[in-house]
Amino acid sequence: MVVAGGAAYGNNNNNTDARNAIFAGAVFLGLGVLCCLSAIINTCANCSDHRHSHASCGITVLVHEADALRQQNSSLCQQLKALQFQIQRQQIIFDQQLHKSVSTQPTIPNKSTGQAHDFKEEINNLKEENSNLNEQDDQLKKEINTLEQANDVMKENINNLKQENSDLKQEFRRLQQENSRLEQEYRRFEQESRILRQEIDRCIEENNRLKNS
User: Fold this and answer.
1) Mind telling me which residue stretches traverse the membrane in this protein (predicted)?
2) Which of 37, 45, 183, 191 is deepest in the core (most CB within 10 A)?
3) What long-range pairs does 141-147 form, CB within 8 A, spacing at least 24?
4) What tens digit of pLDDT does each residue of 38-84 get?
């Protein structure tokens, strides 16, 4: 029976290693996202000085980053749910084996006392491990919440850039119209200037003719 309990305990150790791996991955992912977000914000700040040429580029980068973040969040949630289900299943199996072993245990005072002590110690270890897993679960939930908040910030930045891009397009169309108006005004001015020069030349010729006569 101790061997069976140890096997269940070994499975829980494997679960702990898996949870630790996921937790480390979540922490690494969170740091990567924060660094990425910082770089994107800096990029957006630089883009504000050259927004006519870089607004579309900034929007594309943020859209790709937001999609990647959503996929990573979804994958992390699925892994967490699968691990929680596996832990619950292992706990049920262990409880069933423990109950079955206790109910069929022969009444030998010394041996029964020693095995009962081993079971209690193993149960206490499992309770402590379960407490640690709950703490890790809470930490993962906090990490996921942080990533969701970062995702919301990125969405807001994307919406702001879209609005800025729309404003730039309107400003560009206005400048095009203004440029077209100035070109028409310039052509009109050139035409009037030619007419004026012709009139001046005619007056000079007339003046010379009068002098000669």
Assistant:
1) 21-41
2) 37
3) 143/26, 143/27, 143/29, 143/30, 144/26, 144/73, 144/76, 144/77, 146/30, 147/29, 147/30, 147/33, 147/69, 147/72, 147/73
4) 555 555 445 444 554 555 666 677 777 777 777 877 777 788 788 77
Contact call for residues 158 and 59 (beta carbons, < 8 A): yes
| Distance from C-alpha of 180 to C-alpha of 112, rounded to nearest angstrom | 100
Q: What predicted TM-score, i.e. pTM, was given to this entire model?
A: 0.36
CA distance 5 to 140: 29
